[in-house]
Specification:
The protein has helices at residues 25-34, 56-73, 90-105, 124-137; strands spanning 9-13, 19-24, 38-43, 50-54, 79-84, 109-115, 142-151, 154-161. By secondary structure, it is of the alpha/beta class. A hairpin with a 5-residue loop joins strand 1 (9-13) and strand 2 (19-24). The mean pLDDT is 89.
Length: 162
């Protein structure tokens, strides 16, 4: 920016976006100061480097504003988890299902885990039935990402919002 530009010659673009041409850096700085703006190097690797005449404070503000907006749109990337046991009571199931639907409505991915303990490992079909019931109950809000997988003592499915 301004005096920090070390190249002897630069290609200048004015504040309206029109190309002025190749000129000495000092002449470009003078042109920018006449308009009470800054000379900002936008493409330092080009030959000659490309500089634009602009209000650097305004440019910086606009760029920060765009970055904040981009961060807001990335909020749906969180992964939430809902854990259950295969012998879950109906009220507890409805409570967990309500939370699962809430997470999905907020555009979050949800990892559903059914954990088996002790002798429950022998009866994995109870967990599979529960997982199918969950998938049916949230079919309107989410779809299965990949497939249902079995890891050690648990059954895991990842749901993504539609």
């Amino acid at each position: 920016m301004n005096e920090q530009i070390s190249a002897p010659q630069v290609r200048v673009i004015d504040s309206k976006g029109e190309q002025v041409g190749v000129m000495d850096t000092q002449a470009a700085l003078k042109l920018a100061s006449e308009q009470e703006l800054d000379l900002v190097e936008v493409a330092p690797n080009a030959t000659p480097p490309v500089c634009r005449i602009m209000d650097y404070g305004k440019f910086k503000y606009e760029r920060e504003k765009q970055e904040k907006e981009a961060k807001k749109k990335q909020q749906g990337l969180h992964l939430k988890e809902v854990r259950m046991r295969p012998k879950i009571d109906e009220h507890d199931y409805q409570f967990k299902l309500r939370h699962l639907k809430e997470f999905l409505s907020k555009r979050n991915r949800v990892k559903v885990s059914i954990i088996f303990r002790g002798r429950e490992n022998v009866h994995k079909e109870a967990g599979e039935r529960l997982m199918q019931q969950i998938l049916e109950d949230v079919a309107d809000l989410a779809s299965l990402d990949g497939s249902i997988r079995s890891e050690r003592n648990s059954l895991i499915a990842t749901l993504v919002p539609k």
